[in-house]
Amino acid sequence: MNIELTPAYGEIKWPTIGLATMLPVPKSTKGKIGYDNEQFGFEAYVGGTTQADYTEYVSQCQTLGFVEDYNNTETMYTAKNKDGYSIRISITPDENRDMIVEIQKPEKTKSKTSKASSKKATNAADTANSANSSNSSTTTDTSNASGALVDGMRPEFKTAIDSYEAFFNEYVDFMKKYSANPTDAELIKEYSEYMTKYNKAMEDMGNTGKEKMNDAETAYYLAASNRINTKLLEVATQN
Hints:
By secondary structure, the protein is an alpha+beta fold. The chain contains six helices and seven strands; from the N terminus they run βββαββββααααα.
């Protein structure tokens, strides 16, 4: 069966180095690479993907070991492998059937953060032992207050996701203007600035502690990701 693809997609050349080599090569050869960066990860848009193709691709990823902490729906699959590499495979619910493939490295700061937290905890314990009972009580109250959840989520996590989505809303609006007039000197200058902001947003997103998400945070993260991916596809398929 021939599948008509959006004209915005050319032939996709699957990378032979980097994170992409940890994933199966998609059946469709039409699409585009969103980004391929050793630090920030890999993302590709694959056009002309049927629901059956998507389901088969997810099954191939599972065979490769991406079955840890998984979340599986009809249109999205997220999981990690035993080494902590995380993937997100999603498919759009429209007639174009675009599949988005993403993979991220484990957070390098995890072990460093654990050591730093352990050291801080030791120092805090020493301080508490030398402090009087009133100071200890004040410290405990402050700790309890700072640990309060917002809608079942860590406040810093929710803020990070909201900021991440807000950036991409702005980014998509700009890319629509840029795609419509790519020779505009002012837009070319802004494009360079947005690429810097984009890389920073991806870096910040990698530091949100996604590996520790509870149920409420997972749902919030997936909902935001779906909205972002839908908007990014609007740009990717814009003529």
